[in-house]
Amino acid sequence: MNPKKIYDAIVVGSGAAGGMAAKELTEGGLSVLLLEAGPRLEPTRDFTSHVWPYEMPYRGFDKPGRRRTSYWNQWIANEYSSNLYVKDTEHPYVTTHGKPFQWVRSRFVGGKLLHWGRHAKRLSDMDLKAADHDGYGDNWPITYAELAPYYDRVESFVGVNGTTENIPHLPDGKFLPPMGLTCAEKIVQKLAPKVGMRVIPARTAQRTRRINDLGVCHYCGECDRGCDVGGMWNSVSDTLPAAARTGRLTLRPNSVVREILVDPNGKARGILFVDRLTHRHHEARGRVIVLGASALESTRIMLNSVSRFWPHGIGNSSGVLGRYLMDDIGGPEVSGFLPILMGREPVNEDGKQASVEIVPYRNITSRHPKFIRSYTHEGWSGASMFPGFARSMGGFGSEFKQQVRRYYTAPIGFNLRGEMLARWENHVEIDREVVDAWGIPVLKIHCEFSDNEREMGKDAAENLLELFHALGAEIQNVSTSLMPPGSIIHEMGTCRMGDDPKKSVLNKFNQSHDVPNIFVVDGSSFVTSGGYAPTLTIGALAARASDYIVEQLKRRAL
What secondary structure does DSSP assign to 281-334, as a single string? Predict the structure, then answer.
């Protein structure tokens, strides 16, 4: 980084939002400085995709006695992947007593795209204009027609596999060939219509054939460990190399952003950041600031950017900054076994790590009496390297082994992914009494579910039980409780877009109403959650905002 240079744009964050923005802005002719809080990882060295359990000191499980401070870290950050998540002791946050929130972070070049779930679905006008359908909340300031070309652009570059289904509220995309279904998935797809459910292959950003000279999935089935062959959408293999090829990208890792700096007129002039390793402060100057650090982190940066112009956080004249926090809801789950598949010859069924999903069906053509909006179910099935169900089986010795082997080829399960309503009282603020390892004040998070989410969860659990009975499945586990907010890692809202500057922070191009050379392109800009994976929409919004930035700079309007 050249400290004397004024870059055309400074992008903060290198994941889905920041990586896509860096690619689009540099290809648009702009000089871009990309600041990432964490270090750069080397896939062939730091990812454990192809390491066998017997090669790991603890056989793939976590080190005994390791203290995990969040629900998510206890659940997913095992010996294979714990190095891909932050240490909560270095990155603290505060929650309201009795209202837990799980804030899962991954501060590395590439962010959470290094090991994300890869579900890549488009929102429709049922989501973008949800208030028109049920009268709750606010509409987005954009339509599906305005966003569709950017969905096309992102899918055409990163590659999304799926099937054309002609479902109005789940728009089709520019799909690569879908991944094949397992035996259990084919059975579910055939029988689910008997209980009014439609099952389709999951739409995921895993490449089933070569596109744009990027890597192809080879079905190792360990995407959550980091993909060292670059077979799925992530910044390290996809967007950042494309940006680097332009010769206009400067990447500076280990740069923990503290705040946005302003000029004598209150306009953004640059970024103040802390070197992660030396703890020294540095300034970077840019004509445009693009925040893509993740929903809560971008909002934290803005709330910490206090000056005489912006005493309550930069761009916060409306008082809306930090409000309307959302996550998708999850937790209700039913799992068990299909008797027809018990005891068969095992085949590689966990290789694709993408299964099937039940198309959203509640509150689409009719209204449920107890809740609004809709939900979907994501499913899984088949043999896997770690048959977790064995923990709940009795017996020992050869009898136990025979029982596990009999059930090994027959597992099946479905869970809930549903929409959390945007509510003013769910919000974040700065707690200046607590700082992170770099002396930056942290967020205090106030968030809880409403009756709408709880009723949705009950309905989802009941419907899954109905499905399992229709399948003739042997039910092993039924969970009806919701996971704490944040657990699905789909944080959205807190810096919402809208047409009215008094009710929103950003306009329809993700541009600050108050400070025109600040753009926020991650999930914080969402007005509604849609109820399923936001990543594809984040990429599309980042691409759309980048087009607008390039155009405005060329016109000298910023």
Answer: EEEEEEEEEEE-S-HHHHHHHHHH---SS-TTSTT-TTS-TTBS-B--B---EE
Q: What is the pLDDT of residues 83-104, one digit of tens each?
A: 888 988 999 999 999 999 999 9
Over 80: is that where the pLDDT of 63 sits? no
How far, CA to CA in Å, does 181 sit from each of 38, 162, 163, 350?
37, 11, 12, 11
C-alpha to C-alpha distance for 337 and 382, rounded to whole angstroms = 9
Q: How far is CA 129 from CA 133, 142, 338, 490, in A?
A: 7, 9, 40, 20
Distance between CA atoms of residues 503 and 324, nearest Å: 11
Q: What phi-psi label fits residue 467: left (phi over 0), alpha (psi between -120 and 50 degrees) or beta?
A: alpha
Q: Which of 60-69, 113-122, 242-251 has the highest mean pLDDT?
A: 242-251
pLDDT at 49 over 70: yes
Which residue reads 């899954």 in tokens?
464
Interval 130-140 mean pLDDT = 97
Tracing tokens 């899984």 back to the chain, one arrives at 380
Binning pLDDT at 50, 70 and 90, where does residue 72 land? Answer: very low
Which domains are delineated in the chain? 1-55+106-159+233-326+424-444+491-558 (3.50.50.60), 175-202+330-418+449-484 (3.30.410)
Q: How far apart are CA 491 and CA 316, in angstroms?
A: 20
Quick count: other Cβ atoms within 10 Å of Cβ 485?
25
**How are beta strands 94-95 and 441-446 bridged, if at all?**
parallel
Tell me the chain's radius of gyration from C-alpha atoms: 23
Distance of alpha carbon 459 from alpha carbon 42, whole angstroms? 44
Evaluate whether 111 touches 14 at the Cβ level (below 8 Å): yes
Is 75 or 517 the better-scoring residue by pLDDT? 517
Rounded Cα distance between 121 and 389, Å, is 30
> 26-31: long-range contacts at Cβ-Cβ below 8 A with a sequence spacing of 24 or more?
26/243, 26/246, 26/248, 26/249, 27/242, 27/243, 27/246, 28/546, 28/547, 28/549, 28/550, 29/248, 29/550, 30/248, 30/549, 30/550, 30/553, 31/5, 31/7, 31/248, 31/250
* Continuous segment of H or E residues that includes residue 381: strand 375-381
Q: At residue 540, what are phi and psi to the nearest 5 degrees?
A: -65, -40
Q: What is the pLDDT of residues 480-506, one digit of tens each?
A: 999 999 999 999 999 999 999 999 999
- Sequence-separated (6 or more) residues with CB below 8 Å from residue 135: none
More confident: 435 or 352? 435
Instruction: Give the span between the Cα atoms of 547 and 550, in whole angstroms.
Output: 5
Task: Determine the length of the chain.
Answer: 558
